[in-house]
Amino acid sequence: MKLALLAIPALFLASCQSMSEGVLSFEGRTVVIDDADIEDVENGSAFDSENLDLSGYGIHAALKTPVVDFLVGVDDREFGVKDSAEMVLGVRRRFLEFWKLHPYIEADYRYGFDLDNGVDSDSYDGWAAGGGALLHLTDSVFFNFRLMYESTTISLPSFSTDVDGVTGTIGLGFSL
In 3-state terms, what secondary structure has residue 164? Predict the structure, then answer.
């Protein structure tokens, strides 16, 4: 077991990627799976249930290198019925190409603007980590399937709390 855990970083660092699918890509994506909970609920806040529906959609770009892909994106995120514009910065590591499928691991930093908490609007930040796969339909067009664990710290009227859970997204993109 310990040997298998030690092999994962070596596999991550040792594999090289071909650049046959371009250096820059753009993608539209949407949340299709959500399972998130808010740690604490405050009376009078915009969030009245511990089970929180997350949804959203956005546009993302990736600068692809042989080692990692640098990601930037803009999303419209909804926490229950409250929405917010969100900026995403991340890094993705593709590994082991199978046929037209590129599995990867990814880590993101997320920053949101003007989320209404029931009293005022406040910014928030969080992180996401997980993995997925790029399925290349052609040399230029691909689907992106992701499953990420997210943690977001939001402000309620009198304290801050965390929204944690799993989200799944699907995206359609093209590479240049």
Answer: strand
